Amino acid sequence: MTGPSTAPVLKVSGLSFGYPQQLALFTDWSTRVPPGITLVRGGESKGKTTLLRLLAGDLKAHAGQIQVNGVALSGQSDAYLRQVFWTDPRSDAFNQINALDYLASLRARYPAFKQQAVESLLDGLSLTEHQLKPLYMLSTGSRRKVWLAAAFASGAALTLLDDPFAALDKASIGFVMDRLKNEAAKRNTARAWLIADYAAPGPVPLAAVIDLGN
């Protein structure tokens, strides 16, 4: 990992994980992630999505410790998860509710949720006309845009985005890029963003890079 020296939002120490009958993806792996935008890059099957799922608590590590702002996933999971935004972009768990209800459900989970930003996010991602439709009625791209709107509105200390530009139209890609650039430009920000992708998100300034290899 490369990046500036600053107080980390995320600390990972001694992480080990592998799927059954496969080589271990992580063995005694450690990193520190500062505020700002961090790219998690790597080739196919190198563990980009798996790492995000481990950090989100969707997968249980075989060993190691994961902390956000000093709060450990193991032993303090409720407090930890209130600081972490993650929705698997392939999830169908919220198919029966609409975008507004999904976003409303996040207010209780995230203390820094930015309700005042919801309208502009839905408008910027061309979701206004779809906001009352059940998510199962939306296209793959539109559902992904709902997750992105939630990510920006959550105010979470650690925000995890997996392949965020997949299935997006050109205008929405530009909107997300602009939002990420704004996040990267904020002084004294307390938010860390991990973006798992094959390459850097265009002109967005990066605080750090986690390279999982090719």
CATH architecture: 3-Layer(aba) Sandwich
Largest sheet: 5 strands, parallel
Q: In total, how many beta strands?
A: 9
The spatial strand order of the largest sheet comes to: 6-7-8-3-9
Instruction: Determine the fraction of residues in helical runs and give it as a percent range.
Output: 25-40%
Q: How large is the radius of gyration? A: 17 Å
Write up what this structure looks like.
- With 214 residues, the chain is an alpha/beta fold.
- It has a single domain (10-211), classed as Rossmann fold (3-Layer(aba) Sandwich), CATH 3.40.50.300.
- It has helices at 48-56, 77-81, 99-106, 118-124, 140-154, 170-185, and strands at residues 10-17, 26-33, 36-41, 63-68, 71-72, 84-85, 158-162, 192-196, 208-211.
- A 5-stranded parallel beta sheet has the order 6-7-8-3-9, with helices on both faces.
- It is globular.
- The model is unreliable at 1-5 (pLDDT under 50).
Layout of secondary structure:
Blueprint: E1 10-17, E2 26-33, E3 36-41, H1 48-56, E4 63-68, E5 71-72, H2 77-81, E6 84-85, H3 99-106, H4 118-124, H5 140-154, E7 158-162, H6 170-185, E8 192-196, E9 208-211
Parallel strand pairs: 3-8, 3-9, 6-7, 7-8
Antiparallel strand pairs: 1-2, 1-4, 4-5
